Amino acid sequence: MSFRIGHGVDIHRLVPGRKLILGGVEIPWDKGLLGHSDADVVCHALSNALLGAIGEGDIGRHFPDSDPRYKDASSLELLQVVMALVKARGFRIGNADLTILAEKPKLAPYREDMQKRLAVVLQVESAAVNIKATTGEKMGFIGREEGMMAEAVVLLESVTTVLG
Length: 164
Ligand code: MG
Prior knowledge:
- With 164 residues, the protein is an alpha+beta fold.
- It has a single domain (3-158), classed as CATH 3.30.1330.50.
- The protein is 30% helix and 32% strand.
- Strands 4-1-7-5-6 form a 5-stranded mixed beta sheet.
């Protein structure tokens, strides 16, 4: 069996008048992330990690923000497109580990829901998708609630084993 690893990071600005969507889950909050799509940093970091693992660049290359097709796009759906690429390359997800950096709101109540939604798209059990959250301890752009960030690492396993 062969393995690939991938890492992804994403950052979006936090502004009033936008929905806050993280890991495909809408979270009630008075601000949301600004972007061409729904600006779901979690799905973007995860998509970047998957594309990295298969050597396919990043989501900016696959879904350019100059393309009107991706205006207000669901990033969970974009993740689905990326996952189809991963499968076409003959890989499946071993596991994914994610960290969300956000000062507020408390994300613990939404963690399980995010995990389940991402697991469906990644075609793995929920236990293979780990989501952590941390604050910026009131420092920097995270701490001042100017933006949010997410990081993801994934392990891919080849579906077919080479017979010797
Ligand atoms: Mg992004």
